[in-house]
User: Which sequence fits this backbone?
């Protein structure tokens, strides 16, 4: 079990994704670069409020080649997709508490890039997202979501 | 004008200018040719009544501001465009003196709806919040990409389990009317009428099967209606400036007579005065399918089957708009302000449709060529644009759903009934705003469906969307399946106007999507693809 947002965790996520797509047919050919941008929202202890953590995921022929933390945008990297949202949402997804498709559909996580490709590869995309959300046993050294602020908001609602 | 360019674009409406500006920014030598005396097409602002009164002859509502990529990519604000988003976007005033108002403040909108039905107010809030959440996603998927097929979309929505995650989106909407959607989710006739009216103003007619699929998206941007300060033509001028600053050329009074084809490839155009201009890389048409394939191209250049299908299968809207433009010395003061004072600040007002049945009946009458008893919608730009009329005065715009051809007399009948029907529309407005007496109205002019078609021939039969808005004429089926991806059977000839997906309105979508296809074909670096 790896700590959230550590190199070990990225490797486990990558392995979980690849295990799930191993038996899939008609995976999309070619390479995709996906940026994940997580901004602090005052609730998550893993991304301080006012700061951001960025990750780059490389998909090659439908498999996750690597997944690593990066600093900002590298002009040399041509991005195909950008997923951007609050830390509470991404932590919740990684904890299996927040449905990633829900998060995109309801605008919590903003998605940019060629939406036709995502729609045409819906089966593949869904499998990758499920692996991210439920494929890894994650440890949460600073506390596990839902966070106190979330719970307070839920109670208020 | 030189004798050759990389790209020659026919039509300097917002799509032609947008495509031209992107290509010019990409380093191509671009020529945009316009038949009229100025750029803009439907972005046409004229002093139709009196000096100093600016009337938007066609496009008045800019509903894709900050949703359409070209607004930022081409820096239209930097080129002088100023948009205002009226606080009270729209209203319906009903025959009994009640009124419903749509605000940029969701709470105020819901409070207004709640005066008719608290349940409907809650439903509207949920629909708005849900739709607002995915408006970016859907616009990115459906409007600002070359189109997918309905089948592909349906399959993807099913795979992602959207029905289980959404209260309002459903695959079955592709078979339903907006009326059915409203009947399923809302209860009060007036609330339903207002929402259907809003759809109809966007050309999504409430009784057409399949259009329910687009309705949540319409609600997601129901409060994104913008007014272009100084008139809609300012946007056209901004796009022209962007084109020109990047080396592109727009020539007005340039009446294209023919698209030149050599060896199955579009190689240029010929103007009415005989001038020929060569196109080294592409010709793009933003005018109608009929003009492009039946008038500009020699019959031998177009497959016979396609020519036949253009004559028989290209569908146009079965209703159009009759307008009245007014110069006034006062703003309307509605009697319904006693019920809701905000109606006096509403930019666009539905005057009288209080049920779906009333809308259904009028659309049925219009399709039969009859003129309905006027229930026009009234837009008063001066409420939010102090520059569009002299101090202390105001412009008014009445729009009435109407047929192109009048039963028994055809479209020519408009020349004799236009002024009479305009007067009836003003009388209808006066019923709700009694202060608009004859002495308040300094001048007014009708603008008939016939004039739409005469002024802008690409709006065939007054079709201001340049093609029927129906599921059968959407996405990759618009205007015909073989033309649905912006390419044509003639090599290097592209369709980039509102005949194409998504449709008319100031969406920029046809040009933006054609650009993607052209960029792929020519190997242009797509600098605009912001990820």
Assistant:
């Amino acid at each position: 079990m790896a700590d959230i947002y550590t190199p070990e965790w990225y490797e486990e996520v990558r392995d979980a994704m690849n295990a799930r797509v191993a038996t899939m047919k008609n995976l999309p050919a070619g390479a995709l670069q996906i940026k994940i941008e997580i901004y602090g929202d005052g609730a998550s202890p893993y991304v301080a409020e006012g700061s951001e953590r960025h990750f780059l995921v490389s998909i090659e022929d439908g498999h996750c080649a690597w997944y690593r933390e990066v600093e900002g945008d590298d002009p040399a990297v041509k991005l195909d997709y950008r997923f951007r949202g609050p830390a509470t949402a991404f932590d919740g997804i990684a904890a299996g508490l927040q449905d990633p498709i829900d998060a995109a559909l309801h605008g919590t996580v903003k998605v940019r890039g060629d939406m036709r490709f995502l729609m045409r590869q819906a089966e593949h995309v869904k499998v990758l997202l499920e692996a991210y959300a439920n494929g890894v046993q994650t440890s949460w050294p600073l506390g596990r979501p839902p966070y106190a602020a979330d719970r307070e908001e839920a109670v208020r609602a | 004008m030189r004798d050759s360019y990389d790209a020659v674009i026919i039509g300097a409406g917002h799509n032609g200018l947008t495509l031209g500006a992107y290509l010019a920014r990409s380093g191509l030598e671009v020529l945009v040719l316009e038949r009229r005396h100025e750029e803009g097409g439907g972005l046409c602002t004229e002093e139709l009544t009196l000096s100093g009164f600016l009337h938007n002859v066609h496009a008045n509502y800019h509903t894709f501001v900050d949703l359409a990529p070209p607004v930022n990519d081409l820096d239209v604000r930097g080129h002088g465009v100023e948009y205002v988003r009226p606080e009270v976007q729209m209203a319906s005033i009903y025959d009994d003196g009640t009124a419903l108002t749509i605000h940029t403040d969701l709470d105020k909108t819901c409070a207004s709806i709640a005066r008719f039905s608290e349940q409907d107010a809650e439903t509207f809030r949920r629909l708005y919040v849900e739709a607002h959440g995915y408006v970016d996603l859907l616009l990115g998927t459906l409007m600002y990409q070359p189109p997918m097929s309905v089948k592909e979309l349906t399959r993807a929505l099913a795979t992602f389990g959207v029905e289980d995650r959404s209260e309002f989106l459903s695959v079955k909407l592709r078979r339903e009317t907006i009326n059915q959607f409203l009947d399923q989710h809302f209860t009060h006739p007036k609330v339903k009428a207002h929402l259907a009216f809003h759809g109809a103003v966007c050309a999504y007619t409430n009784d057409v099967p399949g259009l329910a699929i687009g309705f949540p998206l319409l609600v997601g941007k129901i409060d994104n209606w913008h007014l272009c300060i100084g008139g809609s033509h300012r946007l056209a001028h901004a796009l022209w400036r962007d084109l020109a600053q990047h080396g592109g050329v727009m020539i007005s009074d340039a009446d294209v007579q023919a698209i030149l084809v050599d060896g199955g490839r579009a190689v240029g155009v010929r103007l009415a005065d005989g001038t020929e201009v060569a196109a080294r890389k592409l010709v793009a048409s933003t005018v109608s399918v009929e003009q492009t394939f039946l008038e500009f191209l020699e019959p031998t250049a177009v497959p016979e089957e396609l020519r036949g299908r253009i004559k028989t299968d290209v569908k146009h809207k079965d209703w159009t708009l009759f307008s009245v433009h007014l110069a006034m010395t006062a703003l309307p003061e509605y009697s319904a302000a006693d019920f809701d004072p905000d109606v006096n600040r509403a930019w666009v007002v539905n005057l009288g449709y209080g049920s779906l049945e009333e809308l259904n009946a009028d659309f049925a009458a219009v399709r039969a060529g009859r003129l309905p008893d006027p229930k026009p919608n009234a837009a008063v730009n001066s409420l939010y644009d102090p520059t569009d009329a002299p101090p202390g005065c105001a412009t008014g715009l009445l729009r009435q759903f109407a047929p192109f051809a009048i039963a028994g007399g055809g479209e020519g009948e408009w020349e004799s009934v236009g002024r009479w029907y305009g007067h009836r529309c003003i009388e209808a407005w006066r019923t709700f705003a009694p202060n608009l007496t004859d002495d308040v109205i300094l001048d007014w002019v009708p603008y008939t469906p016939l004039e739409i078609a005469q002024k802008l021939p690409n709006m065939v039969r007054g079709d201001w969307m340049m093609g029927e808005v129906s599921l059968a004429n959407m996405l990759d089926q618009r205007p015909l399946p073989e033309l649905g991806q912006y390419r044509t059977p003639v090599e290097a000839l592209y369709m980039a106007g509102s005949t194409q997906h998504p449709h008319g309105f100031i969406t920029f979508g046809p040009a933006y999507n054609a650009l993607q296809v052209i960029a792929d074909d020519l190997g242009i670096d797509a600098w605009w693809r912001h990820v």
Remarks:
- Helices of chain A lie at 7-21, 87-94, 100-105, 115-120, 122-134, 148-156.
- Chain A has a mean pLDDT of 92.
